[in-house]
Amino acid sequence: MLYQPENDLLQDKHILVTGASDGIGREAALTYARFGAKLILLGRDTVRLQSVADEIQQVSGHAATWHTFDFSHATPESSQKLVAQVAQQVPRLDGVLHNAGILGEIVPMSEIDPQVWRQVMQVNVDATFWLTQALLPLLLKSPQASLIFTTSSVGRVGRAGWGSYAVSKFATEGMMQVLADEYQGQSLRINCINPGGTRTKMRASAFPDENAQKLKTPADLMPLYLWLMGKDSAAENGKSFDAQPGRKAGPAE
């Protein structure tokens, strides 16, 4: 995407990023900070979260707040408790990027371990919903808030072998569409981003034999992440965007 944002695009915006300790989440958090945002980071690795917070301090001069939050063990109650802590630190949320997610197994539906299925749904659907539900009051305090979910091409057209992950992303697309319809015309807009094949650890686990050097890096995708979080996309609601339009699904060639 060719997009040249203003340097102060996200000045003084409060943005929460899940899965912020690595990959796309880390890159998005750092990018948002460079454009003026104040970050709240969520992840399950305390050491790496602290490292990202330190990097944000270096690039922006602002301290980021962070909370260790493991989606695989989240409950509605723990989600509400976390958001209560966030609400004590910020007056509102101007944006949320849901980036946390797990892959599960790449096997036929007939071979999926029920425990793996349950874990993927817990992280990618249930915990994401519970946290979103808890965060809505803070988002609605913003005059112009953006809520972004992370989707996948296998969440639009089913593909053999991607069972639990694909079904969880179909659910993500549905969650986004329902929320977008419910808040149509209000101060909150809700959309999805499909990053496409990107040089991350999750991608490497899905395609271990792929030449990662042929993939886009998380940094390459950031123009879309900036645009959809900032004011220039204020009219967009209920849509699913591709960070790599036209990219063929499957291993990089």
Strand and helix order: EHEHEHEHEHEHHE
User: So how many helices?
Assistant: 7
What portion of residues is helical?
25-40%
Which structural class best describes the helix and strand composition?
alpha/beta
Roughly what fraction of the amino acids lie in strands? 5-15%
| Distance separating the two termini | 21 Å
Within the largest sheet, what's the order of strands?
A: 3-2-1-4-5-6-7
Give unreliable regions as ranges.
none
Rg estimate, integer Å? 17 Å
Shape: globular
Strand segment tally? 7
Biggest pleated-sheet summary: 7 strands, parallel
Mean pLDDT across all amino acids: 92
Record keyword descriptors for this entry.
7 helices; 40% helix; 253 residues
How would you describe the overall organization of this protein?
The protein has seven helices and seven strands. The chain has helices at 23-34, 46-60, 76-89, 114-139, 163-182, 201-206, 222-229, and strands at 14-17, 38-43, 65-68, 95-98, 145-150, 188-194, 240-242. A seven-stranded parallel beta sheet has the order 3-2-1-4-5-6-7, sandwiched between helices. β4, α4 and β5 form a beta-alpha-beta unit. α1 (23-34) packs parallel to α2. It is globular. 42% of the residues are buried.
Q: What is this entry, summarized?
A:
By secondary structure, the chain is α/β, with parallel strands linked by helices. The protein has helices at 23-34, 46-60, 76-89, 114-139, 163-182, 201-206, 222-229, and strands at 14-17, 38-43, 65-68, 95-98, 145-150, 188-194, 240-242.
